[in-house]
Amino acid sequence: MIQCQLKLRLSATKEAQLNDWIWSLTAVHNFAVRKIELDAKDGIFYTGMGFHNILAYHGKKIGIPSHTVQGMLEQVHTAWSRCFKKIGGKPKLKGMRNKLNSIPFPDPIKSLEGNHVKLPGVGLLRFHKQDIPEGKIKCGRIVKRASGWYLCLFIDAYRKPIARTCSGMIGIDPGFKDLIVTSDGEKVPHPKELQSSLERLGQAQRGINRKLVARLHERIKNQRKDRNHKLSLRLVQENTLIVFSKDNIRGVAKKFGKSVASSGHAQLRSMLSYKSIQSGTQYIEVNSRNSTKTCSSCGSLSGPSGLSMLSVRQWECSCGANHDRDKNAAVNTLLLGMECASNDGGLRHAA
Q1: What is the DSSP letter of 216?
Q2: Considering the domain boundaries, does residue 103 fall inside one?
Q3: With the C-alpha atoms ordered 342, 343, 344, 349, is the resulting torsion angle positive or negative?
């Protein structure tokens, strides 16, 4: 399954219609969230199909296709199912501070005609023309963002394998001064997209320009995503084994919140995971415990540890080996990953 995003070019009438739909679907979403929550307290639970039809014929009253209403109900039911299984958090109500920004179209969409697409209840919509993978469009979703309206298409198409350029093996130690440091000694600098936009962001916030604030945050998010896509693709192309040191992101964020958020290491790990499957690369995540203070030459725990020793970037082991703190951690990560790969006897991809 491939997701393709098309930027829509809407008329004022179509945009007003979609805004009205979002307003009505917000009420549907909040009703579904409270319905499942209150009935669960009384021991009443719904199957997916049973809850799917709980607002049958209600679409005619609000002027929205019934399948779109059913798609919203199915979305809430799935969220609650994940919550009850302890996989996800409790679904939240939508409102001014937490706005609903998408409209589901769960039915298959007919093939596109040039730069137009026809959606039930909306009609023909024009989009900026771009290359779209060939395949059956299983479903779609209209998303409202600060930069405009987008149509997300889910296409049943074959993914092209990623071409390999080298056959190396690396361990990766994530950081905040440098984005990542590899066992080969490469230090990928941190672009610091958030920090470079802080001045303009602060001006917009002080001026209470909410639209500009949202647009700046979206731009920062797009820059981070683009950076991680390019970096993950290069790493997957160049290596047959990638071992990533998995830190406790939530714990680190409590002490270094802003720098952790701007790094996007969790997003990078996710991209490495699914792109490794496409290219046949082994991708393993290992615990970062003792990776910094363990000597990669002799294995003794003689390196710096703790917050008070964060300023120590170079250190010498009792065996005489000189280490760069981050490179040594990346080498230890690679060694542990190779041991895990040999014990498992094959691939072990991150969840």
Answers
A1: H
A2: yes
A3: negative
Neighbour count for residue 79 (Cβ, 10 Å): 19
Q: Is 136 helix (H, G, I), strand (E, B) or coil?
A: strand
On whether residue 181 sits in a domain, the answer given is yes
Residues 150 and 175 grouped into a single domain: no
**Helix, strand, coil percentages for the chain (3-state, nearest 5):** 45, 25, 35
Quick: pLDDT tens for 155-208: 988 888 888 888 889 999 888 788 888 888 888 888 888 888 889 999 999 999
Quote the CA–CA distance of 120 and 125 in Å, as a whole number: 11
Number of domains within the chain: 2
Can you list the alpha helix ranges (DSSP code H) found in the chain?
A: 12-41, 48-52, 58-62, 66-84, 193-196, 198-206, 210-238, 249-255, 257-263, 265-279, 325-344
Domain residue limits at 137: 2-156
Tell me whether residue 349 is in a domain: no
Q: What is the CATH number for 223?
A: 3.30.420
User: Does residue 102 share a domain with residue 68?
Assistant: yes
For strand 239-246 and strand 282-287, is the pairing parallel, antiparallel, or unpaired? parallel
3-state secondary structure of 81: helix
Other Cβ atoms closer than 10 A to 35: 19
Q: What is the rounded (10 degree) CA torsion for 61, 66, 71, 77?
A: 70
Q: Do 242 and 143 lie in a common domain?
A: no
Mapped onto helix, strand or coil, the DSSP state of residue 178 is: strand
Q: Is residue 163 part of a domain?
A: no
Q: What is the pLDDT of residues 283-295, one digit of tens each?
A: 998 887 877 777 8
